[in-house]
Amino acid sequence: MKLFSRHIYSHPLLCKEGIQGRFLTPPAPPLEKGRKCIFLFFSFLLACVVFPPPAHAMHIADGILPMKWAAFWYLLAIPVVAVGLRTYRRESERSLRFRPLAGLVGAAVFVVSCMPIPIPFTGTCSHPAGTGLAAILLGPWMAAVVGSIALALQALFLAHGGLTTLGANLFSMGVVGAFTGYGVFRAGRGVGLSLFASAFLAGMISDWATYATTSLELALALHGDGSVFSLFLAVLTAFVPTQLPLGIMEGFVTAYALRFLSERWPDFPFAGSARIESSIILPVALAALLVIGGIYVAEAPVGGYMGVDDKVIGKFASEAGKKPLRFLLNVEGDLGLFLFLLAGAAGGFAGGYFYRSLSIKKENKAGKDV
Amino acid sequence: MFELFSDIYADRGNRFTRMDARAKLFAAAATLAAVIAAPGPALPIAVWTLCVMALLSIRIGVKMIALRMTPAISMAAVLLAVNMFMLGVTPVVQVTIGGWTLNVMKEGLHQGGLLAARVVGATGVLLFLGFTTPAHRIFAALRWYGAPETWVELAISVYRHIFTLIDAASDMYSAQRVRLGYTGARRAVGSAGVLAGSVLLRSLEQASRTHEAMVARGYSGNTVMGPLPPLVKTDAAAALVWAACVLSALGAVWRLGI
Question: Which of A215, B68, B140, B253 has its CA 20 to 30 A from that of B209?
């Protein structure tokens, strides 16, 4: 079976008879043993970084994340899978057809995610993530469940990813990738883009969002005493040669696949065409807040952050010759700042959510503006 | 693809495949925990060596093991490179590439080396588990450990249908190739998209047929999962002894700092 074999792009000059194996320049003097080892070591590293093998690098392998971070990502991903399983049970009760449908579409997405697609800049083949496609077909919650199964199968039987890092991989692919893909597809359709264009954007951006989240997960876990942001940028840059073109390719594969499906089955009920349930918004907002909180705590300088009172209000007060009074309710340090962030985010969310009711004029029964 | 799924090798009869999946899963979890908590590369490398020796003893090819290790090693290499150039303050080697001077830091090299060793060790554990345990036994073991029944049911369904669809996808892929479907990047992407669409369409048609067949056999919305066989005591004892050994080794390497 050739389906999953790598494409090998040999240089045409090397394949010409008579050229292969001949050296036209005199051989270089031999290197010292120590220098040779260093040269070989760096060549190997450079080859791995610049010309990575088929890019399965999106899955974090076991052993990379420390226990606390592995547990943290599990805690974030499990509720989404739980909601997905509830959706699965509810839909199964509603229609007996749903169980085989979910199983087969899940399997199809797994197969699609194993298909080789060429990466132009590196000359290798890679595979799409498939979460954007799954989210459009089954909805983001079910896509998270299918993603968890696909990742578990890949970890156990293909040695891609891992069991302790399943939560992190699931969060980046099954949660961020699926919700981003779903959201972009919905937004694209909402502003009147064609199915092809919406699916292309959904596939591409969900892939990029997945790898950006993976980079963030790695940076958060491995930054040590350094900055999370600089390590995040470094990891992101290391993945760019494969993941940037791969995202574009995945976009095209998603778009072609959905166009093919819609041509053969014009009334296919894409989950991305359904109405967004309001129950989706709160868990997604909470998950985003938790991630921001995690980054905030990880980025904290030694001794913690200086409070707003000390840094801003205290500065002006001391310039004006005022002495600080005791706090009535003394909530200090990171907790206070986190609560401040939480309150701001909740206020922003409420403002955005109820914006329509503020801006759109209501009409009474007689059709007059109120 | 069929031969790339590790559990095809788990159908062979040998001492490791005959072990109870629950015991193996417990031992694997304990070993993974020890590998991740190891303070130095000694324990992960030792675990990897033992796993590879065990796999070689049941005639898993070196090429297959190397193929499986490739993704993990590539990621470990990226992390090693990033760590040794970015973390730490003590330069050990200076590399000049095209006027750019890069310093390899001692602390980063240590951290990167440790990560790479952990990745290799943990991947060895997963390889051992995957090559010696069929999927249905792993799913049954997960159910025994309390994984949600709906998840297990869906996972079994997905796993079962993967092979049906891969067969169809493989035929379509071959047909596309002989019709020059993958000549050039642009055409390859288009062909891949059509192949993906065809696989999805096939899956939807198959789902409809499967549903009708299930209803004809009395399906009423509940999938009956059979009872699990009793836990084999000798296998459970072996797993406990292994876990105790690994955790003792972890204690020893913590004390020695290796």
Answer: B140
CA gyration radius, chain A: 26
pLDDT 10s digits, A261-315: 888 877 776 665 555 555 566 666 666 777 777 666 666 666 666 666 677 777 7
* Mean of pLDDT values over B25-45: 92
Between residues B184 and A215, the one the model is more confident about: A215
Tokens of A262: 């819609």
Residues of A in contact with B38 (CB under 8 A): none
Contacts of A89 in chain B (CB under 8 A): 150
What is the residue-wise DSSP string for A184-207? HHHHHHHTT--HHHHHHHHHHHHH
Domain layout of chain A by residue ranges: 67-295
* Average pLDDT, rounded, for chain B: 85
pLDDT given at position A280: 60
pLDDT of residue A327: 65
Task: Give the span between the Cα atoms of B48 and A306, in whole angstroms.
Answer: 46
Q: What angle do CA B91, B92, B97 make, to 5 degrees?
A: 85
Residue A105 has a CB neighbour count (10 Å cut-off) of 23
pLDDT tens, residue by residue, A156-181: 888 888 899 999 999 998 899 999 99
In 3D space, the residue among B103, B140, B115, B48 whose CA is nearest the CA of residue A64 turns out to be B115
Quick one: A226 exposed, middle or buried, by C-beta within 10 A (0-12, 13-18, 19+)?
middle
**Residue closest to B125 by CA, chosen among A168, A71, A61, A153:** A61
**Interface residue of B171, B189, B202, B212 to substitute, partner A, most A CBs within 10 Å:** B189
Higher pLDDT, A269 or B218: B218
> With respect to CATH, is domain A67-295 assigned 3.10.150.10?
no
How large is the ipTM?
0.86
* Beta pairing class for A117-119 and A124-126: antiparallel
b/e burial code for range B219-257 (CB count within 10 A of at least 16 → b): beeeeeeeeeeeeeeebbebbeebbeebeebbeebeeee
Pair of tokens at residue A48: 């791995």
Q: Which residues of A touch B215 (CB under 8 A)?
A: 96
Do the Cβ atoms of A156 and B161 come within 8 Å?
no
Element (H, E) at B94: strand B91-97
Distance (Å, whole) CA B86 – CA B107: 10
Answer whether A96 sits within 8 Å of B214, measured CB to CB: yes
From chain B, pick out residues whose CB is under 8 angstroms from the CB of A78. none
> Contact, A97 vs B211, CB < 8 A?
yes
Cα B234 to Cα B23: distance, rounded to the nearest angstrom: 9
A11 in reach of chain B (CB within 8 A): no
